[in-house]
Design a protein that fits this description.
The protein is of the alpha+beta class. The protein is built from five helices and eight strands; from the N terminus they run H-E-E-E-E-H-E-E-H-H-E-H-E. The radius of gyration is 18 Å and the shape is elongated.
């Protein structure tokens, strides 16, 4: 699979899964928290609403390095994106991406000055697709036990995202 096909597949998985664990680096080490972003493949970005005074905003200001981990356990599809996280205070951009979901966290609306956006720009991505059928998995593990070889448990691809 070429890089463009791999990138397209990664964006499809990210869009389908939706919620990720955002891992940022702080004074006490790596910290992960669940986040749901606005996927913008054309801009090679994922946008997140957050509070100006949040810990993740401080982490983004101190070190823009970030990892987003997406997991669809029932479908056995996993995606890891590494890249940079930037704090964006553009009111027009906040208004553009505003949603009912954002309003739940920020009842003051898009004009609320505590609302900022985090722009995640992926540099590199990897995905793993494994068989989700438990019978298929059991057969693969049984084959591996009999042959003494590692089980072939799906596809793993990586791509540069820009």
């Amino acid at each position: 699979m070429d890089d463009e096909s791999t990138r397209a597949l990664i964006w499809r998985h990210v869009s389908a899964i939706g919620t990720c664990m955002m891992v940022t680096q702080g004074l006490n080490g790596a910290q992960a928290r669940p986040m749901r972003g606005v996927i913008d493949r054309d801009a090679n970005a994922i946008w997140f609403f957050t509070d100006r005074d949040s810990e993740k905003t401080a982490h983004a200001a101190d070190s823009s390095s970030c990892c987003l981990a997406f997991a669809d356990v029932s479908g056995q599809t996993f995606v890891s994106l590494t890249g940079s996280l930037d704090v964006i205070e553009d009111r027009d951009l906040i208004e553009l991406h505003w949603s009912e979901g954002a309003a739940v966290y920020f009842p003051g609306g898009a004009a609320d000055q505590s609302v900022v956006m985090l722009r995640f720009t992926p540099d590199h991505a990897s995905y793993w697709d494994a068989p989700s059928n438990p019978v298929v998995l059991a057969i693969k593990f049984l084959q591996a036990k009999v042959t003494g070889e590692r089980p072939e448990l799906g596809v793993n691809q990586s791509a540069w995202m820009s």
